[in-house]
Design goal:
Number of helices: 5
Order of helices and strands: EHEHEEEEEHEHEHEEE
CATH class: Alpha Beta
Structural class: alpha+beta
Number of strands: 12
CATH architecture: 4-Layer Sandwich
Number of domains: 1
Strand content: 25-35%
CATH superfamily: Endonuclease/exonuclease/phosphatase
Length: 250
């Protein structure tokens, strides 16, 4: 299975040109399931789904906004709900149920991020699925309270993430003896070109797997950061974020 997350940047600047690049990226990676953040509106989602030729997809707008979150899939999505800055979709594959939680946490408020993630973990806990994945744009680094909470390294709001979660980029690149790649690139992404920013490159976009104990862990085959190349013709990258996909055998 190939599972991906991608924040596609809801911005009107060069939107048509970037839409073509985003479509090309999604077709090229050919993931089985893709979680998308910052989808501009339902019409954009419908056209994207058609152009990428995915058979199944869900879109949930954020409260009072056109923008939303979506999950697209080669396999049936049997239900989906929106809760606490996330869409939870259950995908059925050959009798196996995958719970896919696509999250886009608040970029500004750490308190809201903490409140949303602790509530979301409670919501995921009641999902009936064989495997549970939490992926998306967390808008905070791997050093944040949110990430440490999910890994089971600390409590948050007097709660624990039990079972804990595993960051699949950390797991894969540890096997390779490398550091996980960044997904928010202030040095090379064209959005930030010629801007004097003090912001550090970050890894905000992640894919996490909930601990499967006492069942066996799936086998992690690969982890790739994509969408990094700017167009030679336009100088544009598809988005201001890079996407992440993993190849994993359940």
């Amino acid at each position: 299975m190939r599972i991906a997350t991608y924040n596609i940047w809801n911005c009107e600047e060069n939107n048509e040109l970037r839409f073509a690049r985003i479509t090309d990226e999604l077709v090229k990676i050919n993931a089985d399931i893709i979680a998308l953040q910052e989808v501009p509106n339902k019409n954009y989602f419908d056209i994207l789904l058609k152009n990428t030729k995915y058979e199944y997809g869900v879109f949930h707008s954020l409260g009072g906004e056109d923008e939303g979150l979506s999950v697209i899939s080669k396999y049936p999505i049997v239900n989906s709900t929106y809760s606490n800055s996330a869409v939870i979709a259950v995908v059925k594959i050959k009798g196996c149920a995958l719970s896919i939680t696509n999250v886009h946490l608040d970029w500004l408020s750490p308190i809201k991020r903490e409140n949303d993630i602790t509530a979301l973990v409670d919501t995921i806990a009641v999902e009936n699925a064989d495997y549970k994945l939490l992926l998306g744009d967390f808008n905070c680094s791997e050093h944040s309270s949110v990430h440490q909470f999910l890994l089971g390294q600390s409590s948050l709001r007097c709660k624990e993430a039990v079972p804990c979660w595993y960051d699949l980029s950390e797991s894969y690149f540890d096997l390779c003896g490398k550091e996980p790649e960044i997904t928010l690139d202030f040095k090379n992404n064209p959005r930030w070109r010629n801007r004097n920013t003090v912001e550090k490159n970050q890894r905000f976009d992640r894919i996490l797997l909930q601990n499967t104990y006492p069942n066996n862990f799936p086998v992690l085959r690969n982890c790739v950061v994509f969408g990094k190349e700017a167009s030679a013709e336009t100088g544009l990258a598809p988005s201001d974020h890079y996407g992440v996909f993993v190849d994993i055998d359940f």
